[in-house]
Design a protein that fits this description.
With 137 residues, the protein is mainly α. The protein has helices spanning 3-37, 42-66, 77-119. α1 (3-37) runs antiparallel to α2 and α2 runs antiparallel to α3 (77-119). The protein starts with a helix and ends in an 18-residue tail after the last helix. The relative contact order is 0.14.
Length: 137
């Protein structure tokens, strides 16, 4: 079998396995974070979590597929490992950037929710107080 084909197969197997592992890890651990962001609404947190996982899979599998092609033939074991290391390194960087992007956006949403909760007074106003005389109001 041609070593270029071996490189393709190894790249696909490792990339798909890494993408699935990262997606499952993010889904499992991100559910708690989403529940906090969405003020304890578990159904909405599960739905958003599922949508994020589907989007994560689509983007990453699409990238893995587009990045599959190899311009040069792989002739020996050294070139096989070099080609795999470059391709897998780029896939890992893309997975990391996707993860950091998700965390950044969700943290922004969470911070906005915390600020909105802090702006609501704990007790409704019970009346008005007139300004003191001579204060210019």
């Amino acid at each position: 079998m041609d070593l270029t084909v071996v490189a393709y197969i190894a790249y696909l197997l490792i990339s798909v396995a890494l993408t699935i592992w990262v997606a499952r890890t993010l889904s499992r651990n991100g559910r708690i974070f989403l529940s906090d962001v969405l003020h304890g609404n578990e159904k909405l947190a599960d739905a958003v979590n599922h949508l994020l996982v589907v989007g994560f899979y689509l983007v990453n599998f699409g990238f893995v597929a587009l990045y599959l092609s190899q311009d040069e033939a792989v002739l020996d074991a050294r070139e096989l490992f070099e080609a795999l290391s470059v391709k897998l390194g780029v896939v890992l960087l893309v997975l990391g950037v996707m993860h950091l992007g998700n965390v950044y956006v969700l943290n922004k949403i969470r911070r906005r929710g915390v600020m909105e909760r802090e702006q609501v007074p704990p007790v409704a106003p019970q009346g008005w107080t007139r300004p003191a005389p001579g204060t210019g109001a």
